[in-house]
Amino acid sequence: MPEFKLTKVAEADFPSRFGQFRIFGFQGLKGSETEEAIALKMGDLSPALGPALVRIHSQCLTGDVFHSLRCDCRSQLELALDQIVAEGRGLLIYEHQEGRGIGLLNKLRAYELQDQGLDTVEANESLGFEADLRDYALPAAILQHFGIREVRLLSNNPEKVAALERAGVAVVERAPIIAPPLATTAEYLRTKREKLGHLF
Ligand SMILES: [Zn+2]
After folding, report:
1. Is the pLDDT of residue 187 over 90?
2. Ligand 1 centroid from CA 187, angstroms
3. Catalytic residue ranges
4. How far is CA 180 from CA 75, 107, 200, in A?
5. Total count of domains within the chain
6. How far is the CA of 96 from the centre of ligand 1 (A)?
7. Is residue 120 in a domain?
């Protein structure tokens, strides 16, 4: 397996409607492939204060920017930031991995197939993708950069917990983030629960 190299490209103050963060830009290099992620950090993350709340969020342009009601990404993002702000410390890692790694336009093609009756997993598979293409080398390296070995992970996805542990990070607690279901997301959430093992 090629070695993974993380570079911090930038760091700056980041006031937001949620609260006052520091923003970091990271680049990961694995073989000849580069991946980018940003991190929003609040408070003191040193392990002496206990394991911090961490959210690893995969970019969802349609949800995060346009408030799509086809998925619950934007709600999860807001709930995660609210919980980090309520505790006064924590880290949100935002990865450029649109549509569980398949890319933006392929995600829209998957929507087209879903409109014809396929569920989110079947649609990805019929486009030739696995249901979830993410690996967690980049977020694990970012956590290591901040000296974090143990996390309380904001996630409903047990596979994300397992993948992060495989990448060398101890998940001491999985903190659920439950967005209120909507008529437009009910089917999507049912598939995530039944086919991808998410816990609601
Ligand atoms: Zn989404």
Report:
1. no
2. 13
3. 132, 134
4. 8, 23, 10
5. 1
6. 13
7. no
